[in-house]
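Appendix B: complex inputs.
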Amino acid sequence: MIRFQSGGRTFRRPAAQTPDPAPAVPQARVPARPVTPAPVTLSPEDARARLRRGEGFAALVVTGPLNLSGSRWLRTLPDWLRCTALTVDDCPHLSTLPADLQADRVSARRCPELQDLEGRLSIREGLNLSGSGLRRIQADLHATRLILAGCRDLAAIGGAVSVAHLDVRRCAALTTLDAGLHVTQTIDVAGSGLRGLPGQLRAGLRWNGVPVDARVAFHPESLTGRDIMAVRNVQRRRVLLERIGIDRFLEDVGGLVLDRDRDAGGERRLIRVPFDDDEDLVAVLVQCPSTGGRYALRVPPHLRTCREAVAWTAGLAVHDYHPTQEA
Amino acid sequence: MSFPLYRHGDVLLQATSAPATPLHRQPHLTLAHGEVTGHRHQIRDQHAAVLYSVTPTPTPGRDQFLHVTAPQATLTHEEHASIRLPAGWYRVWQQREYTPGSVRVVLD
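Resulting structure:
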């Protein structure tokens, strides 16, 4: 029996296999498929009860959706698992997913201890890991949809990952994508650390679901306020506004001053810019009392005074917003 | 009489009575973390305060309570001036901004 280490896990291969040719060049580490132990087949209810009791399974087939969400007792899952749907959202101590997993859908959202994703995962529909503690993916992973939104510490997606749709929104630590990554349809990059895609990757770019081009996604400094005023599509215009920033947009196009007053930072202004076919843009411009920096925050368009607007940004009524100290 | 309110950049703290709801003690004193800048609004004095979250898996900047256990604690940030907070309980949250169809927490 051959054993070898991959990403901290031990995998076995059948002895009867033909010898592997010597590797010519180092490849991305992808674990070999292990020998399938004789699986235990259980209903979802039985599987949950026996896992809850701490029973270990080398291989488990669950004859339906296995929902273990919110289980504080859950630390690991069987290394070999087949089920229709696996849901392990909000499991604070879950540190790994099965090394060999096949399912229609998998959801492991907001699992802070889930930091490494390894092994072989074949997920027919979607794998949702949003808000988890993922730092690294090094897996043989096939899925229609891979959702990593809000994985703030995720820095690398490696191995052999092939998906139709990839969502890396708000993955601020993810600054590059591996050249081996295979995405056939879309990548949503809103708020990620990405500043471009590998040259061979031809997937369509999305920004919070809205189709965008590389200029909007990665070079917002080249946009102008007048570009945005000329965009007719409301969804696209909103994305462009987000990319250029309210401050620079107002610098470029001006706007109608609805109100002025002063606070600890100096003068405040409430500005309105009317749009065709969409609600007005109303923003309050303030100055930070300790840094001196000016910034603008968009507020609901019905507000008419700076005091109302700033109180709204704090989630307070205007008569409740009286800061003792601001810095 | 309203309770004292402090604004530290996009982070707001308001003095409050001890909360009656169950709280989850946090192993750090970072009130909010700038995803883009990496800057942190945090209590400098490690033994002067305890941070709690209302939810088991907290989102910094939301649903938090700070208990200043020393006579005072200092709230710091890489860019903003420091604020000294007297002993007591504080509700902690972040400013919000409007986008058509949604309201979201300000991100720096």
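Residues 224 and 252 of chain A are 7 Å apart (CA to CA).
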